[in-house]
Amino acid sequence: QAKGQGRNTWQWYRGQRVEKNRQTLALRQDLYTALKEQQFEMHYQPLVDSLSGRLRSVEALVRWRHPSRGMVSPCEFIPLAEQTGQIIPLGRWILQQACRDMVDFSARTGHDLPVAVNISSLQFLRDGFLEDVKHTLAESGLSPMLLELEVTESVLLDGAEPVIELMQTLKAKGIRVALDDFGTGFSSLSYLRDLPTHRVKLDRSFIQAIETDHRMAAIVQAVITMAHNMDMSVVAEGIESLELQQDLARRHCDLLQGNYFARPMSLADLKVLPSLLPGNRSA
Ligand code: C2E
Ligand code: MG
Ligand code: MG
Ligand code: MG
Predict the structure, then answer these.
(1) Which residues form the EAL domain (predicted)?
(2) CB of 239 shorter than 6 A to ligand 1
(3) Largest CA distance in the chain
């Protein structure tokens, strides 16, 4: 009897897995037409000064409005796009759209707003990436000073030299590079010595743990201090409360990003966003 139940449970799990695989395959297939059919859109999430609450820049985040499944999370489809190679044309479109949108934002509001664009490691390391960036800037008319690229430690998996070289070239052109999801990968810290990055971003999983986990708080504090000593600034992601905002401001974290200030939003909503978001302590 117990044996029979075990088998049923096993079959249930197996059924779930088969169903999940089927959905993944279908989604991967749908990616091929999604770009042509204009199912992607860009949203923008504010980054604010930790002390004043002033809008300092935005992060561009892609969204997929799937015709039958509704909004699909980038956590779900970016890895699929990386597997199929679709990340190359998709990544190019993301960069173009973000640059055009920021030019539009400046024209409508009279304010220049820096934009951080997530770049997949595959896209960053591919021959021709630098040309793509230069071409996109020229075509959109966005100042290179307003573009920041976000990469993760996984760009270093096949060796640091080409990465350092590319980052130096980008820097010489005025384009800055931030290290995203800092600390969540498996890299050693020593690579930081040679990488010409200007900013590190602390993942939401680190930030949201500091209120209950004093060891995590120590890591966050150490990263902030280390980054400052290396002339880098620090962004904390995932700020969802006033308490967390105040805690990070006390720790001298430079910029904050999170639903407490604003969720990712359309360009239209960004254009009418007040420059001062909640969390202004000096008012
Ligand atoms: P990421 O680059 O670390 O982006 C930050 C993620 O944290 C975003 O999720 C953002 O919406 C979320 N977030 C920020 N503050 C809060 C908060 O207070 N609470 C909660 N619950 N979430 C918050 P999103 O947009 O779902 O993106 C997830 C990941 O997908 C990104 O992580 C990035 O790795 C990838 N991604 C998103 N857009 C792009 C893109 O345009 N290109 C590439 N290559 N990857 C992208
Ligand atoms: Mg990012
Ligand atoms: Mg991040
Ligand atoms: Mg993250």
Answers:
(1) 24-278
(2) yes
(3) 73
